[in-house]
Please model this.
Amino acid sequence: MDNTLESQKRSEESEMEMKLVHSVKSIGIPPCPKFLIRVIDEANKNEPDYNYIASIINADAALSAGLIKISNSAYFGTRQRVRSVREALVILGLRATTRAISAIALRQAFPGTPTMERFWDSSARIARLSGWLAQQLNLSGLTPEDAYTFGLFRDCGIAILLIAHSKVYEKILSSANNETNLCFTSLEDTALQVNHAIVGSNLAQNWRLPSEINLAIRQHHEINMLHFEESRLPHILLSARLIAVAQLSEHIVQLKLGLSMTQEWPKLGSACLQLLNLTKEDLNKLYEIATPVAEASID
Model:
């Protein structure tokens, strides 16, 4: 009897997984841009050619300008002004440069509608604050470039679902943003048989983002992911900290600017603070010093 039930359970899980894969494929996830693939492939070589990478980036004026602007952002904390792509490569390094152009390419992959522009402006603000917070918190393994990248890619599945399901998804999103008890993604699952975290995770995988960022995207609404355990493997702990930093950033942006209001902080905030080793007194201090970063214009 037990074997029969176990076999039935595996069959049901397999069927659910197949439906999920079909749902994700039918949505239409933007492919990884060719220039990004070329940069990643070259950066992964034992002796990467910096001049070749610079030439790839310089071939796209918007990409090179965007890289220079991001390189001079507060979250990178560069002590000297970056004026060229070559300088960005030397000062930031290949890893941070690759993260930066991935972020630029992500926004370029979507149409520039007013709704989408507001969405990306909010995401960029949260990403920038996440990178800045990573500097302030100085937690082992948590880098500003990873925090920034996760902050920007975290909700990219929302952008994809807004395009795929248009007004239907806007209503689902509104309900999920105002839900005070259920997990955010459970409402999406019920309505669409898929959620933005899974869709975003698939994009991250296709775009060759690190596994820690991919896992964080997939699990960023899951309270269990934020429970502190000293025995956790380092890469899982890093994913959890990425989630916590971005959630804290979103909370500060919501509190100070009234943007992208959700109910996620009441559900996840306590776990985030514990994971980041922050007290309520620490949080109050962060409100004060983080406000200028949150309020700074997004160009």
In short: The chain has two domains: 18-31+113-299, 34-108. The radius of gyration is 20 Å.
